[in-house]
Amino acid sequence: MLINSPFQTKYTNTLKHNAQSNHVLVSYTKKVNKIDPFAFYQINSPVCEGERFFWKSPDDDTTIVGSGLLCSFSNSGADDRFSRIEAEWNEILSSAVIDNPFRVPGTGPLLFGGFSFDPYSLKEEKWQPFGDALFYLPEYMLTIIGEDYYLTVNLFESEELASQSNKVKKTFDILLKGAESSQVSAPKLERKEELSVPEWLTSVAEVVDELQSSDTVNKVVLSREMKLTFSKPISSEYVVKQLHLQQKDSFIFLLETPDGSFAGASPERLVKKMNDQVLSTSLAGSIGRSEDPAEDTDLGNMLLNDEKNLYEHDLVVKMIKGALEPYCNELQVPENPVLLKTPYIQHLYTPVSGISKPGTSILHLVGQMHPTPALGGVPTDQAMKIIRDKEKMDRGFYASPIGWTDFDGNGEFIVAIRSGLLKGKQAFLYAGCGLVADSDPNDELKETGIKFLPMLQAMGGKSE
Ligand SMILES: C=C(O[C@@H]1C=C(C(=O)O)C=C[C@H]1O)C(=O)O
User: Which residue intervals define the domain Chorismate-utilising enzyme C-terminal in the entry (predicted)?
Assistant: First the structure.
C-alpha cells in the first residue's frame, strides 16, 4: 500500500465503531488524465488483492474502481442492517475533511458494497466472508464519468497536514505513472456441474402446486446453483474484464474479499438516487433471443403480450410503486412495460421514477425495496419462507442489493443477478426465475439455464 494506514479497522458492530470514532477521515479528489480502469485495478497488486471493487453502469456512464481498504463496515443478521451501515457511514462523514471541488456523483469518499439476500436463510461456509452486509471505504479510487477521470485518496488523519498532503501528492504521481494494464490468462474449465437438478424440478412443481391452491401467495422466485472447477485459481480481474467486454447493456460489478470475490453482469437496477431524483426498475418476465432479427422481434412481441409474464411483471411494478410512494413525490409509472434486451435474454421492463422527499437516503430506499418480487415473491414474507424451505441453499449476495453511495448521498444499487462467487479454483453461479400458478418446471429450467450464460461465457465455460 502506498499509504500505510494504521487504522485498518473492521467495524463489526456499532459499539466497536464508536470506539474508533476519534479518527477523522481526510479525502482528496483530483481530476486526472485518462487512465485504463483495469490498470488502476491492478495498480497495487498483489498488496491490495482481496480489497478491491469494480463498478460500471451500462453504456460506460459511470465506472468506479476501488483499491485498498481504509476500513470496512460489516454486520450479521437482523433487519436493521441497512440503517446500521448508514449510521456508521454518517458518523465517519460527520467529522470528515473533504477536499473535492468537483462534487461529481461517485467522486470523493464513497462506500461500495452490498447486503446478503436473506439474513435468515441457512448459512454456507463459502459465503461467510460477506456476512449480511459488507461495505468498503477504499484508500484509492478512480471514477470515470463520460470523458472525465477523477482520482480520490482517502486516509485517516494521523499526522501533520503538510506531510499528509505530500504523501497524497506522491500517491497521485505513482498511481498515474504505473498505469499499464497487463494481461491475465484465461482460466481452464475442468468441470461444470448443475447442482441438484431433479430436486430443483421437484421443488418448482411443489411451489407451483402451492401457488395454484393458495389464496394468498401469488409469486415465488426459485433459484439454483452451478459449480465450476478450474485448473488453477480464477482471477477476478479476468472475469470482470470479460463481462465488461461481453455485457455492454448490464451493470458490471465485483466485490473482492481475501477469501472469495463476488462478480456479475446484472441488467436490473434496484434504485438510483442523484440529488433528489430517484429511479427504480421493474424487471421481470423473460424470453430468449434469436440470431434472426425477425424471429427476435417476434419473441419480443410474444413476451409483450404474454399474460403469465405480464402478471409476474405487474406484481413487481406494484410493489416497487408501493415501496417508493411514502418517500417520493411525483412518482411516474408507465402503464405498459417495454423490452430490455441483453445478449442471451429479453425481459419486460418498467422504469419507475420520482422526486425523493427531504431526508430520504438511498440506503433507506434500498432497505424498503429489497427483496422486490423480481427476486423474492408476493407476499414477501410468505415467499421468503417458501424460498428458505425449498431452495435449501444460501444465496449469499446473489439477488441482493449491491452498489455505492457517496458523501453527498448520491448512489446506485442494482440487484446482483447473473452473478457468481469466485473462490480459489471454484466458482458458484446462480440463476433464478419467477414462478406463478401456471409456470412449467421444464420451461423454468431452460430459463435459468439461459441466465447462467453471461457468467459462463466470461469464464470460458459456455459451449456453443
Ligand atoms: C432471478 C433472476 O432474474 C429475475 C427474474 C426474471 C423472471 O423471472 O422473468 C427476470 C429478471 C430478474 O428479475 C436471475 O437472473 O437469476
Answer: 199-451
Which atom of ligand 1 has the smallest separation from the CA of 430?
Answer: 16
Q: Is residue 185 part of a domain?
A: no
ipTM above 0.95, yes or no: yes
In the predicted model, what is the mean pLDDT of the chain? 90
Of 61 and 394, the structure prediction assigns the larger pLDDT to: 394
Determine, yes or no, domain membership for 182.
no
In whole angstroms, what separates CA 225 from the centre of its chain?
A: 18
Instruction: Please give the distance, rounded to the nearest whole angstrom, from the Cα atom of residue 311 to the centre of ligand 1.
Output: 14
Report how far residue 306's alpha carbon sits from residue 336's, in angstroms, rounded to the nearest whole number: 13
Q: What is the mean pLDDT of residues 352-364?
A: 97
158: pLDDT confidence band, cut at 50, 70 and 90?
confident
* 422 CA distance to ligand 1 middle (Å): 21
Judgement on whether residues 56 and 195 belong to the same structural domain of the protein: no
pTM (predicted TM-score): 0.93
The H or E element containing residue 144 is strand 133-145
Mutate to test the pocket of ligand 1, among 347, 398, 446 (most ligand atoms within 8 A of CB): 347
CA of 286 to the centre of ligand 1 (A): 7
Q: Is residue 17 part of a domain?
A: yes
Tell me the CA–centroid distance for residue 56 and ligand 1, in Å. 20
3-state secondary structure of 253: strand
The domain that holds 243 is classified in CATH as 3.60.120.10
Which structural domain, as residue segments, surrounds residue 110?
Answer: 9-177
**Residues within a 6 A CB radius of ligand 1:** 221, 223, 268, 283-286, 347, 374-375, 399, 417-418, 431-434, 451
CB 402 within 8 A of CB 254: no
CA atoms within 13 A on the CB side of 93: 16
Residue nearest to atom 12 of ligand 1 (CA): 284
**List of E strands, 33-132:** 52-56, 62-75, 97-99, 110-115
Position 298 in a domain: yes
Structural domains of the chain, count: 2
Nearest Cα neighbor of 430 from 275, 290, 222 is 222
**Ligand 1 atom having least distance to the Cα of 398:** 16
The β-bridge relationship of strands 62-75 and 9-11 is parallel
Q: Which residues belong to the active site?
A: 219, 268
Q: Are residues 449 and 350 in the same domain?
A: yes
In tens, the pLDDT along 64-110 reads 999 999 999 998 877 799 999 999 999 999 999 999 999 999 999 99
